[in-house]
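REQUEST ID: PR-0412
SUBMITTED BY: lab tech R.K.
PRIORITY: routine
TASK: structure prediction, single protein chain
INPUT:
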Amino acid sequence: MAILLSSANEGVINRWHGLLSPYPMEQAKTLAEVRRRCAAKPFDLILLHRSLVDLPAFEELRKAVPSGRFFLLSDQPNEQEGLAFLKAGIAGYGNTYISPGRIAEAVRIIAGGGVWLGQQVIQQLILDAAARAKEQQASPDTTQRLVGLTTMERKVAEMVAQGRTNLEVAADLKITERTVKAHLTSVYEKTKTGNRLSLALLINRG
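STATUS: complete
OUTPUT:
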């Protein structure tokens, strides 16, 4: 998998390079260089430092590289920025100084064709989905997919659908975060959702 690291900050480039060392990588320090490199060869993933682009500049870049899988990393990520760039076509959004485990997860998901978002953006999407779902009526299929949940699984699922984090759910239910994750794994399998946002959409419709 070929990766392009794009930042004017040498320290950031070096950090990303260290975290992704198993993969072949190239570097670009300006937006113009990103364009040139993407025109010369395809990249499976493009890590793009937020300091290089504003929203209009990214929209132009997206038009120039329509097949690019862009992972935008911001020094101060927030949900409004993430949602705006998500609508413009990014495949991932997170903190510039993302942890090794989370960047590995993000790369795997984005390279596999999915979208990876930081927790703040996911929480905002869940809350927005909940607001919209109040206007919709539950379908028989929705109700049926929730029937198989245990009482505890239903509690966990409903709290996640309200935008609560795993830590908040664990604290409120007086269980460990690991137990919350185990319940969510079971809930995802039973409801055929697979992630927090899809689960929230299902719960809020039901």
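NOTES: The two ends are 41 Å apart (CA to CA).
REVIEWED BY: pending
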